[in-house]
Every structure is written in structure tokens, then in C-alpha cells.
Amino acid sequence: xxxxxxxxxxxxxxxxxxxxxxxxxxxxxxxxxxxxxxxxxxxxxxxxxxxxxxxxxxxxxxxxxxxxxxxxxxxxxxxxxxxxxxxxxxxxxxxxxxxxxxx
Length: 103
Description:
Largest sheet: 3 strands, antiparallel
Structural class: alpha+beta
CATH topology: Thiol Ester Dehydrase, Chain A
Number of strands: 3
CATH architecture: Roll
Shape: elongated
Radius of gyration: 14 Å
Helix content: 25-40%
CATH superfamily: Hotdog Thioesterase
Strand content: 15-25%
């Protein structure tokens, strides 16, 4: 994937973020609400007749929230216990919570 493609997807991802909050107690927790519109770039190819949000974009949303909570760009190297609970279609309102542990 070209850099310009990933930049446009990242921009569309941030445009889909309708609200977020960060709680900085002992650990850091960030909660974001996303609404992906029908013209979101990934819906056009995944799948044209019945659009669903790809899992990799769901993971990108998690990373974006963590970036916002920490005020820095993260580069994930591993992920454990990922569970997708269902299909996400255009205009669905989804809430994602990311809990970050301090070491």
C-alpha cells in the first residue's frame, strides 16, 4: 500500500471519530466513538455489495486512540487476545475503549 493511501485512510479514520475521552489515573484509558460513513475508503473494496469494516481498520482505530491518549505515534509490534464481536457496517456507531498499563 502506498504512503498516500495510508495517509488518506488515516485521515478518513480521524474524520470518523466523533468523540473521545482520556482518563489518566494510575493507568491510562481512552474511549472513542466512531461512525464510519458509506463513503469511507475501505468500504468500497470490502465488500462492494455488502460493506463491512475490515479488521485491520478496526485495529487502526485502536492504535489511533492510543496515539491520542499518549500524544505520540505508536508502532504496534504484537497484539494478543483480539476478538471481533461482529460485523461493522456503514453508519454504525461503535465505541472502543483502550486501556494502557504503566510499567
